[in-house]
Design brief:
Elements (H helix, E strand, L loop, with lengths): L1 E2 L4 H5 L4 E2 L13 H13 L5 E7 L5 H9 L3 E9 L2 E2 L12 E8 L1
Parallel strand pairs: 2-3
Antiparallel strand pairs: 1-2, 3-6, 4-5, 4-6
């Protein structure tokens, strides 16, 4: 789950990225994702001051968006990305799983 990022900001700042954290629908709301993040944050804290992740922007990601905020993740301040490239004002992008906002947490 932690892997070398393709997101330029994380690469430049050596921020390990949690990627593709999923819990099957029937197992959601049982704090499984939180327990996984607890362990990942603990492991990453041994070698990094920060951890990062990207989250989708449409409704299907609502639960994840709320959870990350409650856990102390904040937006990295670089705006939206599409396929890991910053979305420029006035440009159109497709709203799908590649439209993300990246978040970071100080460990």
């Amino acid at each position: 789950m932690i892997y070398n990022s393709h997101y330029p900001y994380f690469i430049r700042n050596n921020i390990p990225e949690v990627n593709d954290l999923n819990v099957f629908r029937e197992f959601r709301r049982k704090k499984i994702a939180s327990k996984i993040l607890d362990e990942l944050e603990k492991r990453v804290s041994k070698t990094s001051k920060y951890i990062g992740l990207g989250v989708g922007l449409y409704k299907d990601y609502g639960n994840a968006q709320r959870m990350y905020g409650k856990r102390g993740y904040i937006m990295d301040g670089n705006g939206m990305t599409y396929n890991n490239v910053q979305v420029q004002p006035g440009k159109s992008v497709k709203v799908d799983d590649e439209l993300l906002i990246y978040l970071v947490k100080e460990l």
